[in-house]
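Predict the 3D structure for this chain.
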Amino acid sequence: MDGIGPRSLGTIRPVAIHEVLYEADDGKWDYRLRFDDADGKHYRLKITDLTWHTYCNSKRDEKHQPHDIARELTDLLQRSEVYLRVGLSRGWSKFPDRCFLQVNGIHTFPDYLQGRTFTDLMPPQR
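Done. Predicted structure below.
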């Protein structure tokens, strides 16, 4: 609930990555991650990391299919050391008094971006 709890942002190292989900939902792309934390709790959280979105979209622009991108990223995360920045969403009209957990940063070692940055992934300006 809004205003409850001591923190709104933290970094965790998941003990298991189960699946990256990347699919269209009502005409919008939806990015999610299924993982377990160190307490054995299972999560399926929305990914709001803009660099992750841009990376997935750049792969799609290269004519990769979303399910193939999701499978590739699942494999990559399962082979990497992963740290997730987990934060809280803001309330919105449907749930104005609630905040939901979301992944707003994904950091991998080795780096899934291979040294690139957000701007390197942007489509060229027309």
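Strands lie at 9-12, 16-25, 28-36, 42-47, 81-88, 101-109.
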